[in-house]
């Protein structure tokens, strides 16, 4: 019976803690709005305010907030949108690269010769372990082909990355068309300098 009382008290304390944190958050939001409007923080009294009156005041401030929407707020909102776009773009790029890696892996596996002369099938020993006599020439051939393809891919990605991040003159642009135009101008300037 004592455990039930303690459990009830614990639940009541948890509810009270949640209620207090919600009240604190509402007061914090209200104070932030007042600071934005007046530029001064509010001095609190020891009397507790009604939450219902706060809700009514908040409803009245919605129109004022929309009218007082500053350029700084717009920049914050806009930067959040850009961050969301870049994260979704990076997720899409990651999935595209994973698909590309899977398809190239499948192609490489198909290219491998499955039945080469002198290759024996693996057998099981008395303990149930696989015993395979590897042909070191085939292993070396596989390793060299994998190194070659990895080197080629690395060089291609390096060229693409360098092409994207090479020109510092194209750093300032408004949109993609402007970026392309600036890049074209930079190329023409380099040609005339050479």
Notes on the protein architecture:
The protein has 194 residues and is mainly α. The protein is built from five helices and two strands; from the N terminus they run H-H-H-E-E-H-H. The chain has helices at 2-38, 51-67, 71-111, 136-165, 176-193; strands at 123-124, 130-131. The chain has a two-stranded antiparallel sheet. A hairpin with a 5-residue loop joins strand 1 (123-124) and strand 2. Helix 1 packs parallel to helix 2. It starts with a helix and ends with a helix. The model has no long low-confidence stretch (mean pLDDT 78).
**Discrete helix count:** 5
What is the radius of gyration computed over CA atoms, rounded to a whole number of angstroms?
33 Å
Give the overall form.
Answer: flat
SSE pattern: HHHEEHH
What is the mean pLDDT?
78
The total count of strands amounts to: 2
SSE class: mainly alpha
Mind describing the biggest β-sheet? 2 strands, antiparallel
Which range does the strand content fall in?
under 5%
Keywords for this entry:
Pre-mRNA-splicing factor SYF2, 2 strands, mainly alpha, 74% helix, mRNA splicing, 194 residues, single chain, mRNA_splic_SYF2
Question: What's the short version?
Answer:
With 194 residues, the chain is mainly α.
Strand-helix topology:
Blueprint: H1 2-38, H2 51-67, H3 71-111, E1 123-124, E2 130-131, H4 136-165, H5 176-193
Antiparallel strand pairs: 1-2
Helix pairs in contact: 1-2
